[in-house]
């Protein structure tokens, strides 16, 4: 297996994001946090993940600033994992993955969950990439530019 560079040495933002939050368990933990799961035992029960894996992923997510560890909101001796602003900004990524999964990974009439707007009760509009004027963009409409360190 090829040895990977550290995330900080990789110039690609996608590669860095995958290194930080891209494994299955990290994304599932974050997904459950959007459903107000906050305690280790709740994550473990809902996900069925081994405790050592959960502890490792939560530790990493705290270290990179996705979660803060706070005293339990009910005053008990437990700690809670609370999404930070940085963590809450992952929401569109999770929604985009959910929408892709809904569209391509289920047969018609197969049991699944759907994310609804609490106010209207309707499914969310599909996430789309748009330019600064609101026009839809596809992969062929975009290009990458390398920005050298210290340059803007």
Structural class, judged by helices and strands? mainly alpha
Oligomer: single chain
Q: What's the CATH C level?
A: Mainly Alpha
What percent of residues are in strands? 5-15%
Low-confidence stretches: none
Give the count of structural domains.
1
- Find the CATH superfamily: Winged helix-like DNA-binding domain superfamily/Winged helix DNA-binding domain
What is the radius of gyration computed over CA atoms, rounded to a whole number of angstroms?
18 Å
Mean pLDDT: 92
Q: Major beta sheet, specifics?
A: 2 strands, antiparallel
Order of helices and strands: HHHHEEHH
Q: Helical segment tally?
A: 6
Tell me the helix content.
25-40%
CATH topology-level name: Arc Repressor Mutant, subunit A
Task: Quickly give the CATH architecture.
Answer: Orthogonal Bundle
The shape is: globular
The strand line-up of the biggest sheet is 1-2
| First and last CA, distance | 36 Å
Please give the number of β-strands.
Answer: 2
Domain HTH hxlR-type: 12-109
Protein name: HxlR family transcriptional regulator
GO molecular function: DNA binding
Pfam family, one: HxlR
